[in-house]
Design a protein that fits this description.
heterodimer; A: 7 helices; 62% helix; B: mainly alpha; 3% strand
Chain lengths: 182, 268
């Protein structure tokens, strides 16, 4: 076996999302849309201006991009419906900038934890790749709320959150052998 | 009508004779017994080929552990050599905490490797050290560099980003989905480290998203550099500025195939 061949496991996982993956990604899309709407609510509140407003708008756009990326992965299975439960949990805390930052940090931590748990259940590699690239940025956005307006390492490193990820079992599939014994 | 002159025919003929003689000189000579000693001076030491490297989940986890030890060594150097001075001295507690975080990460990935039947790897990645860390440290600590503290933070910021990218990149290669989640939990921790340093190096709301240096056009350090986590090279500008006030720029990469910690690699 050459090194190049060895880079891939013998049983290659599917690239496309499985049926279980699609359900997991539907859920992920719902929480991303809730985050998008929460940032829009904060940005439209009139409490923020200039660079701070630009940052909140940027973060909202990122979550919109994540929802769109999931559309690309699951196609017709996409519901494009926000998770109302998550939205309701946070929307009341956007009234003041102090509580809003704590709430938005908690939101980002929840999304990172939820998407990480979803990643741990995905069979399809395409979705796993995209979700991994989303998770690192959500952790960064959470940390930003611990560093602004004043830097607190303890707050920036605060990752406490409950994952909302549902548990959806994969249907056992026949593996695809990439090598054949002589 | 024949276009070849007598002179052309002689020239071509001469070249053919020379070519044949040259080829004959390169070939085996009749009556000469071939000997292995003719073309070499002294005895050639027999070589041992490296074992075939197979990239398994264990190898990826051991490689991750090696990067964690690179970070631990770097943070220890900062603390032991008193590299944080002036305003940067306020970061001492953060540096201690982040070093301890990396030790915890190393323990986690090593425990995963052992649970899969592999060996724990408890030292730094030599190739990453030689290619990136040592050249960067040389620039950071050279005489005349007015920003040693700032530059050492820039280096650990870059290494945190390399750590995040390494874990993110491993997601596509790890066979077990549960391992993908485990490594991403560590990646999110290191992404948070990176944000703390990004805010120290280029703080404020305006620097959170991507911006570019107006003079050089190069990207500035950003807390959230893009919508999706990148797997591209990490740029690091450190060292004594030149006449145009520009620091040398290094390019750091995540471990490639020959930087992985295969099963046959041990700590020296």
């Amino acid at each position: 076996m050459t090194t190049a061949q060895a880079r891939f496991p013998r049983s290659t996982p599917p690239a496309q999302p499985t049926d279980a993956d699609k359900q997991l990604l539907q859920f992920a899309q719902g929480v991303e849309l809730a985050a998008r709407d929460l940032y829009k609510k904060a940005a439209d509140s009139g409490k923020y201006a200039d660079d701070e407003l630009a940052m909140l708008t940027l973060f909202g756009e990122h979550h919109n991009s994540y929802a769109q990326a999931m559309n690309g992965l699951i196609g017709k299975a996409a519901t494009n419906t926000r998770n109302d439960s998550l939205y309701s949990t946070h929307v009341g805390q956007l009234a003041s900038p102090q509580s809003a930052y704590a709430s938005l940090q908690s939101l980002e931590n929840t999304l990172a934890a939820t998407n990480t748990d979803i990643l741990g259940q995905l069979a399809g590699i395409d979705a796993a790749r995209i979700l991994a690239s989303i998770i690192t940025i959500e952790a960064r956005m959470a940390a930003v709320f611990g560093t602004l307006p004043s830097l607190s390492v303890t707050s920036a490193m605060n990752a406490s959150a409950n994952s909302l990820a549902p548990k959806i079992a994969q249907v056992k599939m026949a593996t695809t052998e990439t090598t054949v014994a002589p | 009508m024949n276009n070849i002159s007598r002179r052309d025919a002689l020239r071509v003929g001469g070249l053919s004779v020379f070519g044949a003689a040259f080829l004959a000189a390169c070939g085996k000579q009749s009556g000469v017994v071939p000997s292995a000693n003719i073309l070499s001076e002294g005895a050639v030491t027999p070589t041992t080929a490296l074992p075939e490297g197979v990239v398994t989940d264990t190898v990826l986890l051991r490689t991750a552990a090696s990067l964690e030890y690179n970070a631990i060594e770097l943070y220890d150097l900062i603390l032991n050599d008193g590299m944080l001075t002036g305003d940067y001295a306020k970061l001492t507690d953060a540096v201690k905490r982040f070093r301890d975080d990396h030790q915890a990460h190393a323990n986690t990935v090593n425990a995963l490797a052992v649970s899969l039947g592999g060996k724990a790897h408890t030292c730094a990645n030599d190739r990453m050290n030689r290619l990136y860390i040592q050249p960067a440290l040389k620039l950071v600590t050279e005489k005349g560099n007015p920003d040693t503290s700032r530059d050492i933070i820039a280096l650990v910021h870059a290494m945190e980003n390399i750590g995040v990218q390494t874990y993110q990149g491993f997601v596509a290669t790890l066979a077990a989905p549960s391992l993908r989640a485990e490594v991403m939990r560590i990646a999110t921790d290191e992404a948070r480290h990176s944000v703390v340093f990004a805010q120290v190096l280029n703080g404020g709301y305006a620097s959170v998203g991507p911006t570019n240096n107006e003079t050089t056009g190069k990207p500035n350090i950003a807390s959230v550099p893009a919508a999706f986590g990148s797997l591209s090279s990490v740029l690091l500008s450190v060292g004594t500025p030149n006449a145009d006030n520009l620091k040398p720029t290094l390019t750091l990469e995540t471990p490639s195939l020959n930087g992985l910690i295969y099963d046959f690699v041990d700590c020296q």
